[in-house]
Automatic annotation (TrEMBL):
<dbReference type="GO" id="GO:0010008">
    <property type="term" value="C:endosome membrane"/>
</dbReference>
<keyword id="KW-0963">Cytoplasm</keyword>
<dbReference type="InterPro" id="IPR016024">
    <property type="entry name" value="ARM-type_fold"/>
</dbReference>
<keyword id="KW-0813">Transport</keyword>
<dbReference type="GO" id="GO:0005794">
    <property type="term" value="C:Golgi apparatus"/>
</dbReference>
<dbReference type="GO" id="GO:0015031">
    <property type="term" value="P:protein transport"/>
</dbReference>
<protein>
    <recommendedName>
        <fullName>Vacuolar protein sorting-associated protein 35</fullName>
    </recommendedName>
</protein>
<dbReference type="InterPro" id="IPR005378">
    <property type="entry name" value="Vps35"/>
</dbReference>
<dbReference type="Pfam" id="PF03635">
    <property type="entry name" value="Vps35"/>
</dbReference>
<keyword id="KW-0472">Membrane</keyword>
<keyword id="KW-0653">Protein transport</keyword>
<keyword id="KW-0967">Endosome</keyword>
<dbReference type="InterPro" id="IPR042491">
    <property type="entry name" value="Vps35_C"/>
</dbReference>
<comment type="function">
    <text>Plays a role in vesicular protein sorting.</text>
</comment>
<comment type="similarity">
    <text>Belongs to the VPS35 family.</text>
</comment>
<keyword id="KW-0333">Golgi apparatus</keyword>
Length: 793
């Protein structure tokens, strides 16, 4: 209730003040219109007396001040026109000093002073010195600040600067600088003193009010930066030391932070670079609570932008040792601010690293030094759990990846993994994903086993369970994405030298084999295919394995592959392991290694017998075995017979009759391989096809018994197509009469009383007949062959 009363009172006081200004402004305008100087001075002094109030907050006082300011601009125009009031400016300067109250007197004096300087009847420096000294008479913080702000405003375009019309004899740039610096110093003292104006209980409110007035003080630094005559030498020897002295001596957190920020923002980057030591030396002397991380971060950002836009200036950065100066300054700030939170310290080093990467990208020792400093900060502390701090560490570790577009460069930084060790398990994984995405995006090849070792140490959060997190607690979708990324990563590890490539594969295997049953199904296939790619490159080499130092040979790699695929038994993932064994068998076939290929097929059959229980999985598996076996040509008669016998035997033992039928007729291809001499056993092909027909027939009868109607003739049409295939390939056992008989059988089945109309199988059969007709009409040798097949109506 008291607060609302205070606000109402303030509004009332402001309204009274505005009313007073408006009332006197009315008479002032009348006096100006009638060119009555005495009346104009009288009412302007009364109008300005309203600014003597102490009851308004800075925000409300500003409203009042702006009303008065507008009237002063009008008054200044009147003062300039001597023919209107008939009083020389020097006399006018004396006259206004007779105003009764100090505040109106000084406002009028500043207004006339502005006109006096413009008249050039006296040196600008003398008038400015006179005004800045006289303003000391007002020591009330708010009233004094606004008065000096007015002085800065009216004098800013009348400073004796180089090239300025007010650069008279003896008037130098130094006079302009001294005037602005003196006004700045006095304003800052008033601004700092504001904090002691009210009761301690309203400290927060006072700080907020002070913050609103900061631009009045900062404007002086902006004016300084606009003075043309301030060259680097003057800035280094006079301006910067004076401003820093005031900042350090005021011992006020708000003022120090704001003014340091002002210096960085308003003065040229070139000056900052050349005065870096002076500027940075002030930082440890500031109050411990000043937010120096933001100040230094902004300075480094300014300098790095400057370097990016002016690459020709990079030698200057080395010459002034910018990196070491910034690095030392950060170290001293850490010592001075012992309570600085980890997030603040790390964010400082993120800025330093960004600066280093942009200004000295070739200096990896600098980059590693920054990372080393972060390790020092983090060591001795528990794993980071502060989300802001971990975010900063991720930014720190991501910066080199973004800059170099090449993980290999980051892998040479000795402190990189040491920083990652301080992350909690969750963030460690996030960072590991950032690393992998960087490699994939930039297509960075990692080409030595040593670098692969470092890389997999960095991403260990994805390839094994870290402390405190088990795979059971993970979100399945995230987990799958992570593991797929690791699998993709394996294809970015490559070296043209087979020896080194084998070392890389062994290094990866060492890391991923302890990944646990959930990870292995993702990582093993990628590793197997990387190894098989190496095998293909080594095709034809057949050295025996006898010790560690033996060169990379297919045999040695196949032994490793056997171990790798065996680990899938802990998952268990029999279908995946079976597919990988068959891939290895095919590769061994291409290397002409019969015993190795046979061993892989044996492993596949063992898995099929003992592990693959699901009927659908069995169907898929047996077709994979048949397809692979058909492509393999390395086996002698005995081994091939053993394997084909196994395949046909398992085909006939599948659970469902249609699956049996299809697997058995697929086996017919094992005895007739078109692109290869030797395997063209027409009789066994016919046996397979007849056997599949019997099974199809049994399936039809079973459907008849169980459902009261015969099923579709799809199986028969599929078998007919197999007959046609071998008929065309020249299998002597497959004759036109056999095909004729099968066509008649299908037609009979379709016309029987129990037949169910099935559009799919009917269309399939019609298409097959159309194909036969097409071959008959085509003529030539194939046409003659088909000619004896009668399709009938």
């Amino acid at each position: 209730m008291m607060i609302s009363n205070g606000i109402e009172d303030e509004e009332k006081w402001l309204a009274e003040g505005i009313a007073g200004i408006q009332h006197n402004a009315f008479y002032l305008h009348r006096a100006l219109d009638s060119n009555n100087l005495r009346e104009a001075l009288k009412y302007s002094a009364q109008l300005l007396s309203e600014l003597r109030t102490s009851r308004l907050s800075p925000h409300k006082y500003y409203e009042l001040y702006m009303r008065a300011f507008d009237e002063l601009r009008r008054l200044e125009i009147f003062f300039k026109e001597e023919d209107r009031h008939g009083c020389p400016v020097i006399d006018l300067y004396e006259l206004v000093q007779h105003a009764g109250n100090i505040l109106p007197r000084l406002y009028l004096l500043c207004t006339v002073g502005s006109v006096y300087i413009k008249s050039k009847e006296a040196p600008a420096k003398d008038i400015l010195r006179d005004l800045v000294e006289m303003c000391r008479a007002v020591q009330h913080p708010v009233r004094g600040l606004f008065l000096r702000s007015y002085l800065a405003q009216v004098s800013r375009d009348k400073l004796p600067d180089i090239g300025s019309e007010y650069e008279g004899e003896g008037d130098t740039v130094m006079d302009a600088v001294e005037f602005v610096l003196q006004n700045f110093t006095e304003m800052n003292k008033l601004w700092v003193r504001m904090q002691h104006q009210g009761p301690h209980s309203e400290k927060e409110k006072l700080e907020k009010e002070r913050n609103e007035l900061r631009d009045l003080v900062g404007k002086n630094l902006h004016v300084l930066s606009q003075i043309e005559g301030i060259d680097l030498e003057m800035y280094r020897d006079t301006v910067l030391p004076s401003v820093l002295e005031q900042i350090v001596n005021c011992k006020d957190e708000l003022a120090q932070y704001y003014l340091m920020d002002c210096i960085i923002q308003v003065f040229p980057d070139e000056y900052h670079l050349q005065t870096l030591e002076t500027l940075l030396s002030a930082c440890p002397q500031l109050q411990p609570t000043v937010d120096l991380k933001t100040v230094l971060s902004q300075l480094m950002e300014r300098l790095s932008n400057y370097a990016s836009l002016n690459p020709e200036l990079l030698p200057e950065f080395l010459q002034v040792e910018a990196f070491s100066k910034l690095s030392n300054a950060i170290g001293k700030v850490m010592e001075a601010q012992v309570d600085m939170p980890v997030v603040g310290a790390i964010s400082l080093y993120v800025s330093l690293l960004t600066f280093t990467l942009r200004v000295h990208p070739d200096r990896l020792d600098y980059v590693d030094q920054v990372l080393g400093a972060c390790v020092k900060i983090l060591s001795g502390k528990p794993k980071l759990e502060d989300s802001k701090a971990t975010k900063q560490v991720v930014a720190l570790l991501s910066a080199p990846l973004d800059k170099y577009d090449d993980i290999v460069t980051a892998l040479t930084l000795s402190n990189y993994p040491r920083v990652m060790d301080h992350l909690d398990a969750g963030t460690n994984k996030v960072m590991a994903m950032v690393i992998i995405r960087s490699i994939m995006k930039n297509k960075s090849w990692v080409s030595t086993s040593d670098k692969v070792e470092v890389l997999f140490e960095l991403i260990k959060g994805l390839i094994q369970d870290l402390e405190g997190i088990s795979t059971d607690e993970l979100d399945e979708e995230d987990f799958n994405e992570e593991q797929n990324s690791v699998a993709c990563l394996m294809h970015m590890l490559h070296n043209d030298d087979p020896e080194e490539m084998l070392k890389i594969i062994c290094t990866v295997w060492k890391h991923v084999k302890s990944g646990g049953p959930k990870r292995l199904p993702f990582t093993v296939p990628s590793l197997v295919f990387s190894a098989l790619k190496l095998v293909r490159r080594l095709q034809g080499q057949d050295g025996d394995v006898g010790g560690e130092e033996v060169p990379a040979t297919p045999k040695k790699i196949f032994q490793l592959l056997n171990q790798i695929i065996e680990t899938l038994s802990v998952v268990p993932a029999p279908e995946l392991a079976l597919r990988l064994y068959l891939q290895c068998a095919e590769a061994a076939n291409d290397c002409d290694l019969e015993p190795v290929a046979y061993d892989f097929f044996t492993q596949a059959f063992v898995l099929y017998e003992e592990e693959v229980a699901d009927s659908k999985a069995q169907v898929t598996a047996i077709h994979l075995i048949i397809g692979t076996l058909q492509r393999v040509n390395v086996f002698g008669v005995e081994n091939r017979d053993t394997l084909t016998h196994k395949a046909t035997g398992y085909s006939a033992k599948l659970l469902k009759k249609p699956d049996q039928c299809r697997a058995v007729y697929a086996c017919s291809h094992l005895f007739w391989v078109d692109d290869q001499d030797g395997i063209k056993d027409g009789e066994r092909v016919l046996l397979c096809l007849k056997r599949s027909l019997r099974i199809a027939n049994a399936a039809q009868q079973m459907t008849n018994v169980t459902r009261g109607s015969s099923g579709p003739v799809t199986l028969f049409v599929e078998i007919l197509n197999k007959y046609l295939y071998f008929f065309e390939k020249g299998n002597p056992q497959i004759t036109a009469s056999v095909i004729q008989g099968l066509i008649e059988l299908i037609k009979t089945e379709m016309q029987s009383d129990n037949a169910v109309v099935n559009p799919v199988s009917d269309a399939f059969f019609t298409s097959t007949l159309r194909y036969i007709q097409f071959q008959k009409e085509k003529g030539g040798a194939m046409g003659e062959k088909y000619d004896s097949i009668k399709l009938g109506g």
